[in-house]
Amino acid sequence: MSLKIYDWPTGPFPARVRIALAEKGLLEQVQFERINLWKGEHKTAEFKAKLSYSGTVPVLELEDGTIIAEVNAIITFLDNLDDDQSLTGRTPAQKGIILNMTRRAELEVQEVISTYFHNATPGLGPDVEIYQNKEWGLYQLAKGLRGLRHFDELLQKQPYVAGDEFSMADIALVGGMLFAAMIDVEVPSDLTALFAWYKRVQERPSVKQQIDRGFLDG
Ligand SMILES: N[C@@H](CCC(=O)N[C@@H](CS(=O)(=O)O)C(=O)NCC(=O)O)C(=O)O
């Protein structure tokens, strides 16, 4: 099976798919095509018509041309290629809890830090950031810091974001931590359970290799 993924190689959202690919042993079966976000290649009419209505990456293209263009959807597809849905859940309850916590990590951390990046910093540059609202961006950053504190409290009581095992939900929170690191958002040092979790998940080569990749500028 050959898969094609359009992404920015070190972007925090694409990193989540790359972690899942590594977890499933599929990294070698993927052809990656770099989409330069700083040049707005993800915002062209052609890209949005063919690949991503939202104008975002990553986008997965299957051999038959099928397009899947949301991180969680891509990971769900990958996790269902074999008979062990370790990332998205093996039972109905696990599937519900993992998706619940994945969305919470997105809505309370990664997406709000991304909104801060695009609104209250130069972001991808004036040619791409055609609308910015600095006040809204700062408001979302404060929400993201509250979100990180919430996950610190959660991780004082359980080893992983959705419970006792590593899952797609942990990958989502790793995405939030990567986004924070990429734009120098300081994670408060008193979030010791969060940092302990981050150290724990970095024991997985799939996660460590993404964190060690650093970030490319446009
Ligand atoms: N809802 C999308 C969000 C994807 C997303 O925001 N991707 C970023 C990539 S990166 O910033 O993590 O590298 C993007 O395309 N950003 C470009 C933009 O928002 O203009 C998903 O979950 O896949």
Polypeptide structure, described:
- The chain has helices at 12-23, 45-50, 71-79, 92-120, 134-154, 168-182, 192-201, 205-212; strands spanning 3-7, 30-34, 59-61, 67-68.
- It is of the alpha+beta class and 218 residues long.
- A 4-stranded mixed beta sheet has the order 2-1-3-4.
- β1 (3-7), α1 (12-23) and β2 form a beta-alpha-beta unit.
- α1 packs antiparallel against α6 (168-182) and α4 (92-120) runs antiparallel to α5.
- The two termini are 31 Å apart.
- Glutathione sulfonic acid binds at residues 8, 11-14, 37, 42, 56-57, 70-71, 114, 118, 124, 128.
- The site of glutathione sulfonic acid has 15 residues, from α1 and α4.
Please state roughly what percent of the residues sit in beta strands, choosing from under 5%, 5-15%, 15-25%, 25-35%, 35-45% or over 45%.
5-15%
**N-to-C terminal Cα separation, in Å?**
31 Å
Oligomeric form of this entry? single chain
- Number-wise, the strands total 4
Query: Looking across the biggest beta sheet, what order are the strands in?
Result: 2-1-3-4
Radius of gyration: 17 Å
Sheet having the most strands: 4 strands, mixed
Q: Fraction of residues in helices? A: 40-55%
Q: Average pLDDT across residues?
A: 97
Secondary-structure-derived class? alpha+beta
Bound molecules: glutathione sulfonic acid
Contiguous low-pLDDT stretches (5 residues minimum) are none
* Helix count, DSSP H or I runs of 4 or more residues: 8
- The string of secondary-structure elements, in order, is EHEHEEHHHHHH
Give the overall form: globular
